[in-house]
Structure formats: structure tokens, C-alpha cells
Design a protein that fits this description.
The chain is α/β, with parallel strands linked by helices and 565 residues long. It contains 18 helices and 19 strands. It has 2 domains: 263 residues, Nitrilase/N-carbamoyl-D-aminoacid amidohydrolase (4-Layer Sandwich); 206 residues, HUPs (Rossmann fold, 3-Layer(aba) Sandwich). 37% of the residues lie in helices and 18% in strands.
């Protein structure tokens, strides 16, 4: 019994394109003498399809494509069987009227063989908006010349019920328990599980939990690719009945593997360790690459200030799109240091990207004259700072419009959380690349990039191999927006080492003021940060999509009202 794992990258809503890709995958599986091909959750749609599922014509197109695929596969590949993730219509008068289902194509026909039991409604997930829960587990009996194989089928969240893994569970029975005493030869989990830091380890824990209960082999197959703010990292794997890893598929790229279920395989030796920082970098590169490609952009534009945030985004963009497709603009005012201009230019040279300088001094003076002479509005303080930022934002948007660049914003999570950013200024852009990275993590990632630990990634992404990329001058520079004389971020904010601890406690760990105070944080500082978070919500509502890296980003999974006390 040969099972072909297809860890592939679908495009959300491109049913025809995804069907074509599944047909190509089937061809490779057929040449590998496979019996059964596996594709991820909702593979025909790409995950998450969101409100595309409400389009009845798309549901009909899906069924037509399944009929065509069934016919084509039977003609070209004989008895090859294909498992595909679909949206199954329920013909009654109740809503929602879909199941998140798995279809089996074989012998020229297709039929539903499994339905998702556990529908997640946390973080970015909102599956109960679209689907009904299945009410039983599914076993596929696959006949080969030698025997009948009993294969359990689960879909993503069906495996994630154990509250001991993440400290929480779903209020529903555990589907894995229902497979006990069924005598499975293998349990399959077909997933669309987005990347978050450290999630790889949790996936293996929940998979180990299943193998320990059922004493059977397990295949965990995950989607790959960036879809809007979500990044799917793949990292599919196979475990033996003792929970030991037989095979690990690639991280953050498509991968395919034909596995013989009959064969006893040894655990591969010396699997390369991937640190959290490397996994973050890989995920961000994939997120930028796919967002650009799937939205029709070939080039990216960045406002390169000489600071650490824009430097990191520029490196990520170069890795994702290639240096020749990255355009960076420095836009100095009279308050920008000479060092910042030099640092930006030298970074551009090291990366071999397109670089130019546009001074904003004349534009700023025009604003000043207009506001002071015409409407008697003096320019000082935050007005002065925000006008500079908005001039830069307007220039970047103009260049992006003119040349069809994807404008990448450079704000980090710490800034977005407390509102240390400017609407229609530095927040301008089509994608917030590092909007889910705290400032301290930005420094950590940049230091990793400049170390020998990044050599593997540098080779893969064609980044400079010699010396440091970002450089000590940028990494060691005290953070500053450089919007007023001798300005530092600490003029407005506490040191990021203090701020980020409080922010992570409030945002991701859901701690309250009292808990944070007990942990040694100052009461007044916590109170101030809480107020800043509340006051800045209107800005975040207007931010571009934020690539999600944590279990609580400030993007689609942050659902806080604007007008609150």
C-alpha cells in the first residue's frame, strides 16, 4: 500500500487552477506506483476560502470539476485513488448548509468519505460561520492485492482536542477516542494549519497523543503557502505506531513523498534542526513571496530609513522576490542623521537592490507655509512629526501606483500596539511584514541574520554569504523615528525590553494589570500601556494585512471595538 503525500500550495478560490495542480500531482503519484494520493484540507478551494463559500455558483463549479477530475484520473491513471478537500452542500433549509469534507476519487467517480467534526472558532478561525459539524469518525477501507487496509480520516482540528497540549480544549468529544478498538492500520490528518511560533512542536505532541491512544501509524499532511495574512508552513510528517518520526517533509515549501505503508522504516538520522528565528524568517519570506505572487505583484517598494525595522523588511523582501525586484527609497528630512542616510545606502549596496534618495525638505516647507500662512495653523510637536510621515507615505504610494510595486510597510508589533505610528504615513502599504514581531524580536531576528546561524537560509534565498548583511551600525543604533531634533523612541515609550514584556502579557497571554504587577512590572506603566492600546485601536483597523506569527496578532484575530471606555 503506497500513499503519496502532496504538500502543495493552492490559491484560494482558484478551483480550476487547484484542480489542474491536483491532476499534475496525480501524474507524479502514478509514476511512483502509488495507490492513494493525499491532499490537504479544502485542497480544491485553498484555505481559508471565507465568504467565497457563500457563492452557490462556486459550489456548482466545484462539483463539475470533481466530475471532470474523476473522469480524467480514471482515463489517465486507472485505479489510482485521490483524496481531496471539498465543501459539501447540504440540501435542506437550514444554515450553515455546508460540511468541511473529504472526497475520494476512484474508478471514475467521487464520493464524500469524511466530514470535519471539530470546527474551530478561535484566533483567525471562524468555521461555524460556514460549516456544520460532522457527527462520526470516518474509516476508509482500501483494498490491495494482499489485504484490506483500514485508514482513519480526520480533518485538522479533529486532532486538537487534548487540553493538555495548549492548555485549552474544545468543548466536544474527542474524535480520536472513537477510533479506539477499530483496528486501524493508519490514521490520516489532513490539515490547513497556519504557522505560529512553536506550533511545529505542538503538532507533533497532538499527533503523538493520537498514536499513543490508537497504537497505529499516523500521517499528518499540512497545506503550504501564504494566503493573505496567514502563512501555512507545511512541515508534514509520518509517525510510526510508537510515535517516532519516520519522515519529515519540508518547511515553507512544497514537498511530495511516496510512502509504503507495508514497509518498516528506520527513523532518518540527523534531521536538520530549525530554530524559532529561522522558522520565523522562512515564514515571513514565504508570506511576502506568496502575497505578492497571488496578488499579481512582481516587485516590492520599501521606505528604507536606515533603521532596524525597514532594514529587516528589506532583507525579507530580497529573499522573497530577488534583489532586482526590490526598490528602496530613502526620504530624509533635516532631522535625519547623516549616519541614517549612509546606513540605508550601504545596506542597499550589500543587498544589490534598487535604491534612490528623495529629500522631503522642500515638500515639508511647502506644507509649513500653507498651514501657517493660509489657515494660521502652526506646525510643531506631533503635527510636525505626522506631516513628515505622511509626506513619505504619499511619495511611496505614488511610486507604488506608478510602477505597480507592492508597498511593504515596516512597523513592528510594539509600535502598532501602542500607536507609535502614523495613519497614511508609515502605516501605508499593501502588507505589514513584521507587524506581528515585537521590537525586541526584531533585534533578535536581525542579529540571527547577521550571524553564521543564518548561512543555510542565506544560500537558499541568494542573500550575501560574506560578512554581516544588516550590520552593527543599524543593529546597535538607539531606535528613533527621527521626526524631531535628537529624538529617541524612549522619549515617548519605556525601553522595549520593558514594554514588550507588558505587551505580550496583555495581548498574547491575556494577563490583567494585577497579574503583570505581581510579576514585577510597575503599576503606572502597565496602566499607561493599557490606555495606549485602547486609544490606538482606530489605527489598527486601518492597517494593511499583518503576516501572522503568534497565537494573537493584531490583525484579523484581534477583534476589539474602537469606541470603548
Amino acid at each position: 500500500m503506497k500513499i503519496y503525500l502532496a504538500q502543495f500550495n493552492p490559491i484560494v478560490g482558484d478551483l480550476e487552477g487547484n484542480a489542474k495542480k491536483i491532476l499534475e500531482i496525480s501524474n507524479h503519484a502514478y509514476k511512483s506506483d502509488a495507490n492513494l494520493v493525499l491532499t490537504p484540507e479544502l485542497s480544491l478551494w485553498g484555505y481559508p476560502p471565507k465568504d467565497l463559500l457563500f457563492d452557490k455558483s462556486q459550489i456548482q463549479k466545484q462539483d463539475d470539476l470533481l466530475n471532470k477530475l474523476s473522469s480524467d484520473i480514471a482515463k489517465r491513471f486507472g485505479n489510482l485513488s485521490i483524496i481531496i478537500g471539498i465543501a459539501e452542500i447540504i440540501n435542506d433549509n437550514f444554515f450553515p448548509n455546508l460540511y468541511n469534507s473529504i472526497a475520494l476519487i476512484e474508478k471514475g467517480k467521487w464520493s464524500v468519505i469524511a466530514r470535519k467534526n471539530i470546527l474551530p472558532t478561535y484566533e483567525v478561525f471562524d468555521e461555524k460561520r460556514y460549516f456544520r459539524s460532522g457527527n462520526k469518525v470516518s474509516i476508509l477501507e482500501k483494498i490491495t492485492t494482499n489485504r484490506i487496509w483500514k485508514i482513519g480520516i480526520t480533518i485538522c482540528e479533529d486532532l486538537w482536542v487534548n487540553q493538555d497540549i495548549e492548555g485549552r480544549g474544545i468543548h466536544k468529544r474527542d474524535p480520536i477516542n472513537d477510533f479506539e478498538s477499530k483496528g486501524l492500520d493508519c490514521l490520516i490528518n489532513l490539515s490547513a494549519s497556519p504557522f505560529t511560533i512553536g506550533k511545529f512542536k505542538n503538532r507533533q505532541k497532538i499527533a503523538n497523543n493520537a498514536t499513543n491512544k490508537l497504537k497505529t501509524k499516523l500521517i499528518y499532511l499540512n497545506q503550504i503557502g501564504g494566503n493573505d495574512d496567514l502563512i501555512f508552513d507545511g512541515n508534514s510528517f509520518i509517525l510510526d505506531k510508537d510515535g517516532e518520526k519516520i519522515k519529515q517533509l519540508s518547511s515553507c515549501k512544497e514537498d511530495f513523498y511516496c510512502w509504503n505503508l507495508n514497509k518498516q522504516e528506520n527513523i532518518p538520522a540527523n534531521q536538520r534542526y530549525i530554530s524559532d528565528l529561522e522558522s520565523i524568517f522562512d515564514a515571513l519570506v514565504l508570506g511576502v513571496k506568496d502575497y505578492a505572487k497571488k496578488c499579481g505583484f512582481k516587485t516590492a517598494l520599501i521606505g528604507l530609513s536606515g533603521g532596524i525595522d525597514s532594514a529587516l523588511v528589506t532583507v525579507i523582501a530580497s529573499a522573497a522576490l530577488g534583489s532586482k525586484n526590490v526598490f528602496a527609497i530613502a526620504m530624509p528630512s533635516k532631522w535625519n542623521s547623516i549616519d541614517s542616510k549612509i546606513d540605508a545606502e550601504e545596506l542597499a549596496k550589500r543587498l544589490n537592490i534598487n535604491f534612490d534618495i528623495i529629500s522631503i525638505e522642500n515638500l515639508f516647507e511647502s506644507f509649513r507655509e500653507t498651514l501657517e500662512d493660509s489657515i494660521k495653523l502652526g506646525i510643531e510637536g506631533v503635527v510636525c512629526e505626522n506631516i513628515q510621515s505622511r509626506i513619505r507615505g504619499s511619495l511611496l504610494m505614488a511610486l507604488a501606483n506608478k510602477n505597480n510595486h507592492l508597498l511593504l510597510s515596516t512597523g513592528n508589533k510594539s509600535e502598532l500596539a501602542v500607536g507609535y505610528c502614523t495613519l497614511y504615513g508609515d502605516m501605508n502599504g499593501g502588507l505589514a511584514v513584521i507587524g506581528d514581531l515585537y521590537k525586541t524580536k526584531v533585534f533578535n531576528l536581525c542579529n540571527w541574520i547577521d550571524s553564521q546561524l543564518s548561512n543555510h537560509s542565506r544560500k537558499i534565498y541568494n542573500l550575501p554569504l560574506n560578512n554581516k548583511i544588516i550590520g552593527d551600525k543599524i543593529c546597535n543604533k538607539p531606535p528613533s523615528a527621527e521626526l524631531s531634533p535628537n529624538q529617541l523612541d524612549t522619549d515617548f515609550l519605556p525601553p522595549y525590553t520593558q514594554l514588550d514584556v507588558i505587551l505580550k502579557g496583555l495581548i498574547e497571554e491575556k494577563k490583567d494589570l494585577i497579574q503583570l504587577q505581581k510579576e514585577g512590572n510597575e503599576y503606572d506603566l502597565i496602566s499607561r500601556v493599557i490606555l495606549l492600546i485602547k486609544k490606538s485601536e482606530f489605527k489598527r483597523k486601518q492597517a494593511p494585512p499583518i503576516l501572522k506569527l503568534s497565537n494573537q496578532s493584531l490583525g484579523n484575530d484581534w477583534r476589539i471595538p474602537v469606541a470603548i471606555k
